[in-house]
Amino acid sequence: MTGDRAGRRKRRVISLVLSALFVLAAVLVFVNRQALHDQLILAYYEAPAEIAALATDSDLSDRGRDLFYVNEPELHGKATFDAKCSGVGDEQSNVLGCFTGTRIYIYDANDERLAGIEEVTAAHEMLHAAYIRLSSGERERVESLLERQLDDGIAPHVDELIEIYERIEPDQLLNEMHSILATEQAELLPELETYYSQYFKDRKVVVGLATDYREAFDSLKREQEALAAELEELSTTINNTTELINQQLEQYNASVEDFNARAGSGEMTAEQFNSERPVLENKRLAINQAINSNNILRQTYEEKRKQYESLAIEFNSLQTSISSKPIAPRDIE
Question: Is the domain defined by 214-322 classed in CATH 1.10.287?
Answer without folding.
Answer: yes
